[in-house]
Write a structure and sequence with these properties.
- With 391 residues, this protein is an alpha/beta fold.
- The protein folds into two domains: 7-13 and 266-387, Aspartate Aminotransferase, domain 1, CATH 3.90.1150.10; 18-262, Type I PLP-dependent aspartate aminotransferase-like (Major domain) (Aspartate Aminotransferase, domain 2, 3-Layer(aba) Sandwich), CATH 3.40.640.
- Helix content is 40%, strand content 17%.
- The protein is built from 13 helices and 14 strands.
- It has helices at residues 18-24, 37-51, 65-74, 90-101, 119-128, 152-161, 212-215, 230-237, 248-264, 266-287, 314-325, 351-367, 376-387; strands at residues 7-9, 57-62, 82-87, 105-110, 134-140, 142-143, 148-149, 167-171, 190-194, 205-210, 290-291, 303-307, 327-331, 340-344.
- The strands form three sheets. A seven-stranded mixed β-sheet has the order 2-10-9-8-5-3-4, sandwiched between helices. It has a five-stranded mixed β-sheet with strand order 1-13-14-12-11, sandwiched between helices. It has a two-stranded antiparallel sheet with strand order 6-7.
- Helix 10 (266-287) packs antiparallel against helix 13 (376-387) and helix 12 (351-367) packs antiparallel against helix 13.
- 49% of the residues are buried.
- The model has no long low-confidence stretch (mean pLDDT 97).
């Protein structure tokens, strides 16, 4: 039997604050009572703020961020529509796969896994599309598989420069509520998120933020939809209800999570993630290891994908960390299986939690045959956290 707390440092699910757990630990309530709308009406405006929007409309579904890919696509597009998508990691790959399975024709811009969305290339392809055949552009803001954050503002500028009307889809599953996200400023049409990362909740809720432009297309879209039909949501949400039984306990948890985010301040949340992520990156450099992300300008502040030396298996590092040291690390996905392990630094964490995880990684690396000097990464992160400490 292991004592103490397990160190959860995968990039999702993330640690759930006690306050959120307490909010969810309650008897079930009547979701059709006259008192039920009070909860929904308090949540939706605050959810919009987290997306960085005053003009969009937020939606809540039982499901995951992956379910929100489908929900977003079927509500504004029709089978046979052409869309332009960037593939730069496993989650952008799965987003594209979802679109293809729904009958959309996807033209893919492939870039190296570890690189960011190439805004200039997106702009070139849209500018060449003078007939406006592309109905949407699909990108992932923070590619969780590679630890890469793309410049969404640059992509927006490229779309505008091409004078193209395509809808702008942004997967923000591992960025919303942890990194700076500006739905209105970037003129996003569909932003996608889930409960289990920056929102510091258990998995189970998917979120959408949708622009007025996209909402105007709901009746034109011909993709089959039932559970994911936003028109049903709009009708019932207007009265504070949902078109089906909502995840009641999760809604109370979400209310508590939103309160925590606003008490810290969204700008402070983003700054904390940058500071903690930089400490992890300094530790990785001290170990002599490299990140999957190819350029410091695109390093993610929520997850670092660490490349193991050739001939060694990252899965061994992950298993040793879990079995011997009570530490969960993320594995490589897709073509990166066995080549990287991922350190999640997102959600409800602080300096000492990160330092404890880094010490566990050092021991697991050595046990897996990847020699690093014990304490080197921890010391590098300690120094950074001391230099940047406030209060």
């Amino acid at each position: 039997m292991k004592t103490g707390r397990h160190f959860l440092f995968v990039p999702g699910p993330t640690n759930v604050p006690d306050r959120v757990l307490r909010a969810m630990d309650r008897p079930m309530e009547d979701h059709r009572s006259s008192a039920a709308p009070e909860m929904a009406r308090s949540i939706f405006p605050d959810l919009l703020k987290v997306f960085g929007s005053a003009n969009g409309q937020a939606f809540i579904f039982s499901g995951s961020g992956s379910a929100m890919w489908e929900a977003s696509l079927v509500n504004a597009l029709s089978p046979g529509n052409r869309v332009l998508a960037v593939r730069n990691g496993q989650f952008s790959t799965l987003f594209i796969d979802t679109a293809q399975r729904l009958g959309l024709k996807v033209d893919v811009i492939d870039v190296e896994w570890g690189d960011a969305v190439p805004a200039a290339r997106v702009g070139e392809m849209l500018a060449a599309d003078t007939a406006h055949g592309y109905k949407a552009v699909l990108v992932v803001h923070n590619e969780t598989a590679t630890g890469v954050t793309s410049d969404i503002a640059a992509v927006r500028r490229a779309i505008d420069a091409a004078i193209h009307p395509a809808l702008f889809y942004v997967d923000g599953v591992s960025s919303v509520a942890s990194l700076d996200f500006r739905f209105d400023d970037w003129k996003v049409d569909f932003a996608i998120a889930g409960s289990q990362k920056g929102f510091m909740m258990p998995p189970g809720i998917g979120f959408l933020c949708v622009s007025k432009k996209a909402l105007g297309l709901l009746d034109q879209a011909k993709c089959p939809r039932a559970f994911f039909d936003l028109r049903d949501q709009i009708k019932h949400n207007a009265e504070g209800y949902f078109p089906y039984t909502p995840p009641i306990a999760h809604l109370f948890g979400l209310r508590a999570a939103l309160d925590l985010l606003f008490e810290e301040g969204l700008a402070n949340v983003a700054a904390r993630h940058h500071r903690l992520g930089e400490g992890v990156r300094r530790a990785i450099a001290a170990w002599g290891l490299k990140l999957c992300a190819l350029d410091p300008k695109i390093y993610s502040d929520t997850v670092s994908a660490v490349v193991v030396p050739d001939g060694l298996d990252a899965k061994k590092v992950i298993d040793i960390a879990f079995r011997r040291y009570n530490l969960s690390l993320g594995g490589g996905t897709g073509r990166l299986v066995g080549k990287v392990f991922r350190i999640g630094h997102v959600g409800d964490i602080n300096e000492l939690m990160v330092l404890g995880a880094l010490s566990g990684v050092e021991m697991a690396l050595n046990d897996a045959g990847i020699p690093v000097t014990l304490g080197s990464g921890v010391a590098a992160a300690q120094q950074w956290y001391r230099e940047t400490a406030t209060g």
